[in-house]
C-alpha cells in the first residue's frame, strides 16, 4: 500500500500512508475492514517530529491528506470533521484493489494483454453482452470471441443466460451476459498460486540436487582460497587451486546459480500473491 501511494503521488504521501498503517496496527482490531479514525491534529504532531526529514509533508500536511483522499485509489477516506478532520484506512478496499491488480497480472501472463483487456472491461461492467465486448475491446470479432471463450474456459469470467421479452408475434431471444465473480476468480487464482509454488519448490530442489557435487566442489575451493589469502600464500598457488574448477564447470555453475536465483524470486512473488489472496479472504464477501 505504501509503494502504491508512493508511485501514485510521491514519497511524502507514502510516508503519510506508512504512519496511518502504523496507527491502524496499534489502535484497530486485527483484520478490521477499516481502521479506527485518526484525527489530523495527531498526524500534524507526528509530522512535526519528522519535520527535518520530511519538511514538505510537515508544511503541506492538509494538502497531502486531501490528495490522498481524492487520488490515493480509495485507500484512505475522511470520516469526520472533529480535530481538523478524521481519516481511516480502508483495509478491505485495499485488499480488493491489490487482488484485482494481481488478477490482471495473472490473466496477462496466462492469456496475453488482449485477454487482460477483455477481463478488465468485463470487470468494469456489472454485466455486459458479447456484442458490447466486441465493440468496446477494439479487437477483431473472431479474436475477441476466442479470447472471451478462453477466459470463460479458464474461469476468469462467468456467463449468465437470460431471455429478452418477445416482441409481438415473435419468439423470446436468449442473450448471454458476461460478468466477473471476483471472489470465485480469486479462489481459482489462489489454487493456481499453490500449484505454481509446489512446482517451483520441486524444481528448485531437483536443480540443487542434480548439481550438488559441483556446487560442493566450488564451496570447498572457495573455502581453501579464502584460507590461503588469510595466510598470505603466493598468488600462483591460489591460481592453481582456483583452476581446479574448469571453464566448462564454471559455465555450468553460472547457469545453475542463475536458474536457482530465478526460482527463488518466483517463490517470493508467489508467497506475496498468496498473502494478498488470503488477506482478501479474511473479509466477508460483499456485493
Automatic annotation (TrEMBL):
What GO terms describe the biological role, i.e. biological process, of this protein? Answer: DNA-templated transcription
Oligomeric form and interacting partners: Component of the RNA polymerase III (Pol III) complex consisting of 17 subunits.
Q: Which residues form the DNA-directed RNA polymerase III subunit RPC3 winged-helix domain?
A: 103-180
**Organism annotation:** Heliothis virescens
Q: Does the keyword Transcription apply?
A: yes
Q: What is this protein called?
A: DNA-directed RNA polymerase III subunit RPC3
Compartments it resides in = Nucleus
Its family remark reads: Belongs to the eukaryotic RPC3/POLR3C RNA polymerase subunit family.
Amino acid at each position: 500500500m505504501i509503494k502504491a501511494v508512493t508511485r501514485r503521488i510521491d514519497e511524502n504521501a507514502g510516508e503519510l500512508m506508512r504512519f496511518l498503517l502504523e496507527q491502524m496496527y496499534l489502535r484497530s482490531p486485527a483484520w478490521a475492514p477499516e481502521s479506527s479514525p485518526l484525527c489530523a491534529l495527531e498526524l500534524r504532531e507526528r509530522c512535526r517530529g519528522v519535520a527535518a526529514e520530511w519538511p514538505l509533508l510537515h508544511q503541506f500536511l492538509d494538502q497531502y491528506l486531501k490528495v490522498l483522499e481524492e487520488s490515493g485509489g480509495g485507500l484512505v477516506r475522511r470520516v469526520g470533521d472533529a480535530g481538523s478532520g478524521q481519516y481511516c484506512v480502508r483495509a478491505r478496499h485495499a485488499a480488493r484493489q491489490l487482488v484485482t491488480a494481481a488478477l490482471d497480472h495473472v490473466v496477462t501472463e496466462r492469456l496475453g494483454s488482449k485477454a487482460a483487456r477483455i477481463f478488465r472491461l468485463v470487470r468494469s461492467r456489472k454485466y455486459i453482452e458479447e456484442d458490447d465486448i466486441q465493440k468496446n475491446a477494439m479487437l477483431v470479432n473472431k479474436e475477441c470471441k476466442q479470447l472471451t471463450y478462453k477466459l470463460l474456459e479458464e474461469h476468469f469470467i462467468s456467463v449468465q443466460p437470460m431471455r429478452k421479452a418477445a416482441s409481438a408475434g415473435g419468439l423470446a431471444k436468449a442473450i448471454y451476459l458476461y460478468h466477473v465473480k471476483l471472489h470465485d476468480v480469486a479462489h481459482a487464482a489462489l489454487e493456481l498460486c499453490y500449484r505454481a509454488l509446489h512446482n517451483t519448490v520441486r524444481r528448485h530442489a531437483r536443480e540443487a540436487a542434480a548439481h550438488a557435487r559441483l556446487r560442493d566442489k566450488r564451496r570447498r575451493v572457495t573455502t581453501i582460497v579464502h584460507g590461503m589469502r588469510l595466510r598470505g600464500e603466493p598468488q600462483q598457488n591460489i591460481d592453481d587451486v582456483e583452476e581446479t574448477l574448469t571453464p566448462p564447470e564454471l559455465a555450468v555453475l553460472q547457469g545453475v546459480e542463475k536458474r536457482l536465483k530465478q526460482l527463488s524470486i518466483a517463490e517470493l512473488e508467489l508467497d506475496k500473491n498468496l498473502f494478498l489472496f488470503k488477506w482478501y479472504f479474511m473479509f466477508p464477501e460483499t456485493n
